[in-house]
Amino acid sequence: MTVMYHRRTRGGPSRILALMQSTFWTPERVPGEVELAVWRAGAGAPLVCIHGITAQHRAFNALARHLGEEYELVGVDLRGRGDSDKPGSGYGLEAHAEDITRVLDHLGLERAALVGHSMGAFVALQAALSHPGRVKALVLLDGGWPRPETPPEALTEEQEREAEETRKGLERAYRRLEMVFETPDDYLDFWFPDRGLTLDDLPPDLADYYRYDLGEVEGGYQPKASLAAAQEDAPGVTERAPTAGELRGVRAPVALARPTAGFFPDAPPLISAEARLMMSEVLDFRSDTVLEGATHYTMMFDPHAAAVARAIRDFLESL
Predict the structure, then answer these.
(1) Is 177 exposed, middle or buried (0-12, 13-18, 19+ CB in 10 A)?
(2) pLDDT tens for each residue of 282-297
(3) Coil, strand or helix at 254
(4) How many angstroms separate the Cα of 12 from the Cα of each of 5, 9, 76, 100?
(5) What is the DSSP string of 14-57?
(6) What pLDDT score does 1 carry?
């Protein structure tokens, strides 16, 4: 069921149109049965950037700005998101990993470093497992923890907390996907209730992210991400992601960056101390950056994105 959402907002069509047209990303299409939208920014060695479960490539706006003089960021809209095709089915970590290799083929890259945020980190790990020769390095941004091998009834208290935090975050992200917002500013009211914010009030990187997240539909704007895609992908993270034993097969060096909070400022981090320790034991960890005061979402935008960019730069220069 589609839900209409409206509140009275400031601004008008000219401001919205100007925002739509102002971006430093250059688009192109990756052909195939499922066409992918790929966006490029910067110049230098390529970094293939993979977003989260209901997001799109503009999640990497700030990183592209910080790294663009040294690296070319290749932002991929995963199938079912952004401007990529949205089939009714055919999702999952393996499908996304194959899509990433299609992107590499399209760009003529034998190997590349992958940067994955949230579910994108799990996709990056799957790509490294399925096609080890194609992945030069991995940057995991608050994602990629091992799937517990114990049955649900035997989970530790910490593992149960991690699962519950993930469920709560996904429920909120999913809820917006069937909603129609009369204006983009109404969309902001969903994310920032009762604050009366408009796109003009946000930093440009964040405003651009929210505007690209929406597509025009009858009656207003709706998030581009497919609810069917998100629902089919979710078990890939919670039930079918690699276990610690399987992650031992990842040969690429790994950098991790993680916030001190989860989806919300008062929520515990998604990567627990137990999960972080396990990751360090099975992956070729080269760096671990902790972002004080950041959440799963805010880590991708300034001021925290500057620290993430430094960590990525230092990691890649050390290889």
Answers:
(1) middle
(2) 999 999 999 999 999 9
(3) strand
(4) 17, 9, 30, 38
(5) HHHHHHHH--S-EEEEE-SSS-EEEEEEESSEEEEEE--TT--G
(6) 45
The DSSP letter of residue 91 is -
**Mean of the per-residue pLDDT values for the chain?**
90
Say whether pTM exceeds 0.70: yes
C-alpha dihedral (34, 40, 45, 46), degrees to nearest 10: -20
117-309-294-285 Cα dihedral, nearest 10 degrees: 60
Residue 13's Cβ-count burial label (10 Å; 0-12, 13-18, 19+) is: exposed
Cα 251 to its chain centre, rounded Å, is 22
Q: Convert the pLDDT of each residue in 242-281 to its tens digit.
A: 999 999 999 999 999 999 999 989 989 999 999 999 999 9
- Amino acid at residue number 41: A
Q: What's the CATH superfamily of 9-317?
A: Alpha/Beta hydrolase fold, catalytic domain (3.40.50.1820)
What region does 255 belong to: left with phi over 0, alpha with psi -120 to 50, or beta? beta
At 165, list the tokens: 């935090």
What token pair was written down for 67?
Answer: 């790294």
Q: Give the chain's length.
A: 319
**Domain boundaries of the chain, sorted by first residue:** 9-317
User: Taking the CA of residue 258 as centre, how many other CA atoms within 13 Å lie in the half-sphere pointing to its CB?
Assistant: 22
Does residue 169 register a pLDDT over 90? no
Q: What is the pLDDT of residue 236?
A: 83
How far apart CA 123 and CA 216 sit, in angstroms, is 29
- Provide the pLDDT confidence category of residue 219 given band limits of 50, 70 and 90: very high
- For residues 67 and 305, what is the distance between their CA atoms, to the nearest angstrom? 10
260 contacts: CB under 8 Å, gap ≥ 6: 269, 290, 291, 292, 293, 294
What confidence score (pLDDT) does residue 235 get?
87
The amino acid occupying position 301 is F
Enumerate residues 6+ apart whose C-beta is below 8 A from 278: 145, 146, 244
